[in-house]
Known about the structure:
CATH architecture of the domain at 11-81 and 171-291 and 366-480: Up-down Bundle
Helix content: 55-70%
CATH topology of the domain at 11-81 and 171-291 and 366-480: Outer membrane efflux proteins (OEP)
CATH superfamily of the domain at 11-81 and 171-291 and 366-480: Outer membrane efflux proteins (OEP)
CATH class of the domain at 11-81 and 171-291 and 366-480: Mainly Alpha
Structural class: alpha+beta
Strand content: 5-15%
Order of helices and strands: HHEHHEEHHEHEEHHH
Strand order of the largest sheet: 2-3-5-6
Number of helices: 10
Oligomer: single chain
Amino acid sequence: MHPLFHVSRRLKTLPAKTSVLVLLIFLIPPSFVCRAQAPASQGQQVRSFTLDQGINYALTNYPSIRAARERISAARAGVSLARTSYLPRADTLWQSNRATRNNIFGLYFANPVISPISGPVLATTSNQSVWGSAAGLLFSWEPFDFGYRRAGVSAAKAGQSRASAESDVTRLDVAVGATSAFMTLVAAQERVKAARADVERRDVFARSVRVLVDNELRPGADASRANAELARARTELIRAEQAEQISRAALADILGIAGTRVEIDAGPLLNLPPTTALPGRTASAHPIAVAEKARVDETHAREQILERSYYPKFNFQSTIFGRGSGANTDGTVADGLNGLGLERSNWAAGITVSLPLFDIFSIRARKDIEKSNERAEAARYDQAIQDLTGQLEEARAALEGARRVAENTPVELLAARDTETQAGARYRSGLATVVEVAEAQGLLVQAETDDALARLAVWNNLASVAAAQGDLQPLIQLLRNTTPGGP
Length: 487
């Protein structure tokens, strides 16, 4: 059975997980698995799913889905934040202080260290301090900005679109992962069925051989060979059961309920699906392509902000403020708490125009950076379209091959059953050896496995086509319209 066709860098990691799974199957001792299965069946909660139920459950509960939803919420809040730039600004201040009052003529540049002082220059200086106070309200509003704020809102909306598109990619990743894990478990269960049937056949044959050996109708070596084949079949059954349990745990993990025992209903997955093709879809509609296009648009939106940055800033401003001081103009000071109250008030209104002249050089450099980023994102978008188109064609070719294999495996199975029956009859008649019977039984178990997995492989490759198109819903609808059950 071919693994699900993966359509993104994250989806391409799934075959590696499958390889690790196969490696674990052969490295973990069977006795360990047998010991581990007992407490699981006794203490674990059991949940049952069909394929579409499993996909929907994973899309609701898997942590990365919840994280993607929160990223969308954050991006939506970013749009709201960008829109607040249209609001005016109002700042209030209250200050009380105790300070000396020594002033001097002269100028100094405004700075954050030296505190300003007002009042006449007295003939003498004094370290005597007085109370002082100040309070005010400053209202500022930018009536027009040459499109700068609109560009900022557009960039925030582009970020929201990108977050939404990336969320769709995450949803596709999780849905494909759940589908892959579900079908892997179905395949593991079918291998267990075939291995268990093989053990039962070999057990019956080994018993019949022992009867013949006990009656001295066959050599003792035949009994030894039959017992060896039976033991090997039991080992294969243990490995198949081990793989089933590992697949079950992997499915629980992708569903977001790790630690819970998962049971599945294969439904129509063991039937050949109808030959109806899935609805076609352009590569540009795939969530990965949409996400790449959203990144291009977001980069372009950031570039538009810079295009609107080098313009004069117009600010309408109005203020009202008051001050109080315990110092008098004749050099005397007031007693008590004089100066803590507001003794003089003023108001003002006007417009301020500012333009940082030399910012043009940094803005040009930043625009060059964003243009390069936009071209890089556009190249990634073109690469994504190429990859998705090629992957879809590969998936369709794999589907066609899987259908042809599934049409041939019933012939293989029928011939293998006839071979096993005839080999057993010939052995009992003394016309065949135990080796021929063992080979026939091995051929039968392989044919049973191939036949069961061939039908599942068609569904698997249908899922690959749906994943390459970026939408698993047509596959789910096809499952619902197909009669469940297998031959």
